[in-house]
Amino acid sequence: GNYAGRVLIPAFKAAGAALHTVVSSGGVSAVHHGRRHGFVRASTDPAAVFPDAAVDTVVVATRHDSHARYVLQAFRAGKHVLCSPR
């Protein structure tokens, strides 16, 4: 969403994070932010991120009603998890 694209992604990039995969439901935002910020991959499939060995941290920036589902999937895959406050 807007918060991820305007605040979170630029902050992680400025901090030197390796930006691997960005996911959005429709794909357009993922491709846009992926190109703009130098992500390796853009996707519409969040489930593809969790088994990826190249990803060690997952940032969940979805609506609050879907946070728990993604957090649990990430934890089960052994990932570090950060959730957006928005």
Describe this structure in words.
This protein is α/β, with parallel strands linked by helices and 86 residues long. It contains three helices and four strands; from the N terminus they run αβαββαβ. Strands 1-2 form a two-stranded parallel ribbon. It has a two-stranded parallel sheet with strand order 3-4. Strand 3 (57-60), helix 3 (64-76) and strand 4 form a beta-alpha-beta unit. The longest helix is centred in the N-terminal third of the chain and has 13 residues, at 2-14. It is globular and about 30 Å long.
Mean pLDDT: 92
> How far is the N terminus from the C terminus?
10 Å
CA-atom Rg in angstroms:
12 Å
Strand coverage percent:
15-25%
Structure classification: alpha/beta
As a percent range, the share of helical residues equals 40-55%
* Shape, principal axes of CA atoms: globular
Ranges with pLDDT <50 over ≥5 residues?
none
- The strand count comes to 4
Distinct helical segment count: 3
Oligomerization: single chain
